[in-house]
Amino acid sequence: MIDYKKALVYFARNKMLCAIYFILPIPIALLIYSIFYIRLPTELPIGVIDGDKSGISREVEFNLDSTSTLRVVKKYNSILEAKADLNEGNIYGLVIIPNGLEKNIKLGIETKIGFYYNAQFVLIGKALDSSFLKVIATMNAKNDTIRKLIKSSNFEIAFSGAMPVVSTIGALYNPSNDYAQFLITLILPCAWQILIALGMLNAIGKISGAKKYLLAFGMNVVVSSFWGMAMMVFFQTIGYPMNGSYNVLFLGILAMSCAISGIVMFVQAFLHNMAKSVGVIAAYTAPGLAFAGITYPQNAMDGFALFWSHILPISYFMELYLQQANYGLDSMDSLKVIAKMLPFFVFFPLGVLIEHLRGQK
């Protein structure tokens, strides 16, 4: 028989385990949320090189500065002068207005306005590019409409001639382009995955015997599943969509907790060395943020990245979460995603078997 009182005393005395189970999840969630609470990038500093110094160039600068995303903080005389600020991050982008812009516009000659930014800042770069293109598109439509009005006094005809095709784009997911929603719903599950692994490793690190492993596994799955559901409720509390079923998500959370716990149990049972197990588990779970299939879509991955994505339970869990939260996909289709995590369950009996065999020696 398993002595549950002794087991509870062990878990109570294991300070690191208690911290992982009852203390760390909330501060980690609040820290990540506090970093991205602004939701949308605003007033990103950019520089301008005005080679034309005309009314049109000043209008371009004014329109750029009037957007909520961009803020013109400095004017430069040359690219070399602006390069230092770009490298140091004092500005995120540089707009180059060429000489003769106003003259060419009046003559109907196509003229390009250059815009340079650091694409390594992926989300910032996307925001910069989007805002810049909107400003230029608006000015192009305005100038084309003015030229058409010279030929026709009818504004509607002039406008339709300037913009014969108007696109209407409706986002099915994250329509406000909230980058916080995009990142928090990925970073928190990845942090949760690491906490599951750390909890399991600390629960079995100083014990031996198959029965004790089973008890530790059960406790880790229960605690991890609780925090997983708390995470789902937290997402809805801060306004993120939940169009699907919590019951399906709970099954996914349970499968995720069992999968990670089983893998950790197998690694520790096989290596029987905490230091080595920490290294292996860290190397295994750390790439989760990159290979979960969100920031780096699976259809764009090469062979190695795709392989790593397939051997991470978090990639299947994120697929399930997005299906349920954003699209409310049919439960049967989502159960097929959960079924993809079932092969990871084989590590649990393997870990128990290895520990049982070791105990018989």
From TrEMBL:
Subcellular location: Cell membrane
Transmembrane segments: 20-38, 179-201, 213-236, 248-271, 278-297, 334-354
One Gene Ontology molecular-function label: ABC-type transporter activity
Membrane topology according to the record: Multi-pass membrane protein
Domain (ABC-2 type transporter transmembrane): residue spans on this chain: 18-348
GO terms for cellular component: plasma membrane
Chief localization: membrane
The entry's keywords: Cell membrane, Membrane, Transmembrane, Transmembrane helix
InterPro entries referenced in this protein's UniProt entry, alphabetically: ABC-2_transporter_component (IPR051449), ABC2_TM (IPR013525)
Official protein name in the record: ABC transporter permease
Origin species: Helicobacter cappadocius
